[in-house]
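Dear colleagues,

As part of the handover before I leave the project, I'm documenting each prediction I ran so the next person doesn't have to rerun anything. This entry is a single chain, and its sequence is reproduced below.
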Amino acid sequence: MQRNPYWPFTAVYYDTASGLRGNHRPGYQQLLQDCKRKKINLILVKSPSRFGRDIAETIKQIQRLKRMNIGVYIETGGINTLTTSDSIVDQLAALDQAESQSRSENIKFGIRHRMRSGKTILNHTQFLGYTKGPDGELKIAPEEAEIVRKIFELYIQYNGVRKIKKYLGSHGIKTVTGKSEWSTSTIDRMLSNEKYIGKVLMQKTYTPDFLTGKKEKNLEQLAMYLVENVHEPIIDRETFDRVQEMKGNIKQAVHIELML
């Protein structure tokens, strides 16, 4: 497109995150700002989903741009919104959204099939106490593991998460991301994380609506899958169960026993 002499090139606008929420897309927001500043009069996109997966919001934004005399050239179908009727653009956007939803459902189906077969899915890039080995499995990071053990030890000694936070700060112990300030919610989640005893509980959260992309806690809407002996534990089972008893936690899951 940059080689087209009739279309002077302005910039490439992109986002590495999901195309669901505009306020989480700095590239998209910059594009709209440049449109308001009249730096752009034609936007080139591969499909309407590049604007967003929500058909209503996509159409609304295209109409706003059209009122500013800014066209959107949609590569799929070769449509220029300035010269094409709104009904055709609406139909194309609707088909594109349906396609995005179908892809989303197919991905979810594949992930859940893996869960049912006992194949663990770990999304952690930074996880205190562990690092990822070349095979993708969790490996114990000795120095970090000592911090994890200390947190569990302090809790069993009837120190709440606020006291534990104070202890960690006063001893100069940093978070997994290198921050000096710990959050009580992080400590609380660590105390309930089954991965510290070598297990992985999958599908703790789910996304009910692919348009919003908002994750919600799985309160038995979908099956959960618990896989044991996935990696080397940091905390022994007795200590972990004691902490869960003190916290009043009850975990429900489909139990899949791995033969290792």
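The chain is about 40% helix and 10% strand. The longest strand covers residues 42-45.

All the best with the project,
I.
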